[in-house]
Every structure is written in structure tokens, then in C-alpha cells.
Amino acid sequence: MEITCTRCHQTVQADNCYCPACGLPQLLYAAEGIPGQPPPERWSEPVRDASTVDWKQAMRAAVALAVPAGLLCSLFSPVSIFGLLWMSVAAAWAVALYMRSQRPAWITIGAGARIGLVTGLLGGWMAAAATAMTLFAMRFWLHQGKTLDDTWQTIITDQVSRQWEAAGVDAQSITIYKAWLLSPEGRAGSMLGAILLLVAALVFFAVGGGALGARFQARTRRPEV
């Protein structure tokens, strides 16, 4: 037998105490006074609003996964090409770890997205910090500043300039843009913009991963009786 949730109108199995989509408690009607039938015990534990987040537990899960994910997502990580995937998985995993400490084990998609947002912010900050520290170490500790500058000049001269020419930008504008990008301010501004873009992308994918993790939990979890 199936019933319909009064809040989100999703289908709920008759043996479920909570809606798997929004976590709304479902009313239970049972006949009383039938000989040999024990009273229902499904409401022996307090009802928890599935749309709220216990941030003390959530932060523990978020920090535990955001730190390694952020290090993997830094621009100089050898596996940074999969950075967005790492952050999505970390956010979904953080939701799963958080749900292990929750009774009843239900969570809404919005609450999962909020946990993903926190995971993404922490992971993005860690990725930005790791990228900045790597650049600092390469330039001042390892004395690879000339290598970095030569690589940047090659990118601007051979790749970016050709793209501008193909897009129809006039030669005078290209010269001005190249001079700015090759200046110390231009290099610093370009790297800062790349780091900020990385952080924004990581946060976006972390929110999606947290929402998907909550959706997956809603499909797989069943109330304990």
C-alpha cells in the first residue's frame, strides 16, 4: 500500500514513518483494542526536522573531507584535472557521514545542499591556500621564478595572442593587453582570477554533490523500528 506525502506529494510506502523526499513524519493509524496485537512503537524516539542541520556534527564531517579534497583540487596538484569530481564526491560523502549520527536518518535535499556549501567553502579555501603556498615555495624557496615567468610569457605570446588574432582583435589592442598581462601586476591579477574561478567552481559542484548525497540517502535509508 502506498500513500502520498501531504507536503511534497511524493509517494510514500505504507511502512515508512517519514517521507523519503522531504522527511515529513507520516501519521500512523492503527486499530486499538485488538487482542494479541501489541501497540505500535514506531514513535518511541523524538521526531527530528529533516530540514534542519546539526552543525556540530556536520562541521566535523565537512572538515574531515574538505581538507584532503581541497589539497587534491589545488591548481598544482597532479590530479587537479579531476578537482570538481573530488569536491562533489567529498560533499556527498560528508552528507553520508553526517547521517550516521542522526536518528531518524532522514535529510532533505536543501539541508544536504547546505552541508555541501560548507564543504565547498572549506575545500575551496584549502585549494586556494595550497595553490598560493605552492607558488610562493616555487618562486622564493626553490628559485623557479624565471621558469614560471618564461612559461607565462610563452602562454601569452603563443597561445593567447593567437586566440585574440583569430577573434579579430586589432594589433594595437593585442599589444596593450600583452604588455599588461606580462607585467607583474598582470601576472598576479591573472593568477588571482584563476584561483577565485577555481573556488567558485568547487563551491558550485560541492553544493550539487551535497544535494545528490541527500537525495541518495533519502532513497536508501529506512526508518528504524
Keywords:
single chain; 225 residues; mainly alpha; two-stranded antiparallel ribbon; 6 helices; 2 strands
Kindly describe this structure.
This protein has 225 residues and is mostly helical. It folds into two domains: 1-47, no CATH class; 49-220, no CATH class. Helices cover 63% and strands 3% of the residues. The protein is built from six helices and two strands. Strands 1-2 form a two-stranded antiparallel ribbon. Helix 1 runs antiparallel to helix 2, helix 2 crosses helix 6 and helix 4 (145-166) packs antiparallel against helix 5. The longest helix has 37 residues, at 184-220. It is elongated, with a radius of gyration of 26 Å. Mean pLDDT is 83; it is low at 40-45.
